Amino acid sequence: MVQNRILVAAPSNIVADLITKLIIASKALTTGEFIRIVRQSLIKEELIPPELMTHCATLDICAKETAEDTMLITKSCLKLRCQREILGAHRLIIGTCATLGNPMPMSFPGGHFTHLFMDETGQSTEPKTLMPAALLSKDRGRVILAGDPHQLQPVVHSSYGRACGFGTSMLERLLNTRTIGPCPRSWPHVVSCSMAMN
């Protein structure tokens, strides 16, 4: 039986941290089964919540034998320079879209990642959405995009980028195509729950 390897992506660190906290609280996975990938700058700026430190790691994206191949573990249990073998052993990897795009040079074996769950996809530009999707298995890969395309739109600073359509999220573009079209929700409980929150 093939074991699923799942990527969970978000457009921001706040959302990725919240997802990590919810996974910890659910106790559905043990510490060694999931990991939250963070940028080095979050460590320098001390922006990682203390309760998440033991679940966080930075990536070692250097080519083999061009840098020290030893993962370091800090006093707070943060893992630094996490290599492909260590990262790939986790069933679930959480991070921002951009951070999850960084493992591409790590050359995971074909078909390693089977699923991508992306939250708040309405806020993400199409290229950002595609970065973690590029890591999926070509045969078995599944993408689940969640979010509200009518809530927050992607932030695009370039007028040229806006003119090229980058102000429209991939989620909104897909929902507006004829092949997918409007998707009535298949889970009425989600609709009633979201309506109750508004």
Going by helix content, strand content and strand pairing, the class is alpha/beta
Give the topology string: H per helix, E per strand: EHEHEEEHEHEHEHHH
Strand count, sense and barrel status of the largest sheet are:
8 strands, mixed
What do the pLDDT scores average to?
79
Taking pLDDT < 50 over at least 5 consecutive residues as the criterion, the unreliable ranges are: 189-198
Main-sheet strand order equals 4-5-3-2-6-1-7-8
| Overall morphology | globular
Tell me which CATH architecture applies here: 3-Layer(aba) Sandwich
Instruction: Give the radius of gyration.
Output: 18 Å
Quaternary organisation of the protein chains: single chain
SSE map:
Elements: E1 6-10, H1 13-26, E2 34-37, H2 40-44, E3 56-59, E4 72-73, E5 79-82, H3 84-88, E6 92-96, H4 97-101, E7 115-118, H5 126-133, E8 142-145, H6 159-163, H7 170-175, H8 188-197
Parallel strand pairs: 1-6, 1-7, 2-3, 2-6, 3-5, 7-8
Antiparallel strand pairs: 4-5
Keywords: ATP-binding, Cytoplasm, Helicase, Hydrolase, Nucleotide-binding
Protein name: Probable RNA helicase armi
GO molecular function: helicase activity
